[in-house]
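Internal tracking record. Fields below are filled automatically when a chain is submitted to the structure queue. Please do not edit lines marked as system-generated. If the sequence contains nonstandard residues, flag them in the REMARKS field before resubmitting.
Queue: standard
Priority: normal
Entity type: single polypeptide chain
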Amino acid sequence: MVIEFYGEVSDYTKRRTDKLRKRYFSNWLLVLMAPVFIVSLVLLFTSEGDGWIYTLVFALLLGSAGAFFRFGPMKKKFNDGKWLFRVQIEGDRLLWTQYLPDKTVRKEKSVNSIKKVYRTKFCYYLVYGDIANAVICERCLLKRGTFEQLERLFEGKIRNLII
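SYSTEM-GENERATED OUTPUT FOLLOWS
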């Protein structure tokens, strides 16, 4: 069984992917903000200096950056060049190829190392570590195989995602 996606990712999917990645980094910033805020409260009640102000300002900056990434506007046009990919899934291996203007980048991964698969209306994100390093399989770029084969292959790991 071979499943293959090939072609240029659409601008719509690029923008949605960018928003998804920003949301992921926003979560990390907000998680980092919580302990810094707690430290500033501890310093407020235990120290006699002004050190708590600096940690509070740092916590507020982290929270502001996190809120901006989460609620900031989505790009209207994505001018990050072409995203030309080929994703081939055969057996228990995944071969991901990106065609850049000056070189070709290839990575081979095990299908078993995929932690989760996010299914959206327009694409699948095959996630290894985190969403920032996900393999994008846009539905309209399916050249060989079927969506049913792909979903059977990742049964139990698929989650619906609304972006």
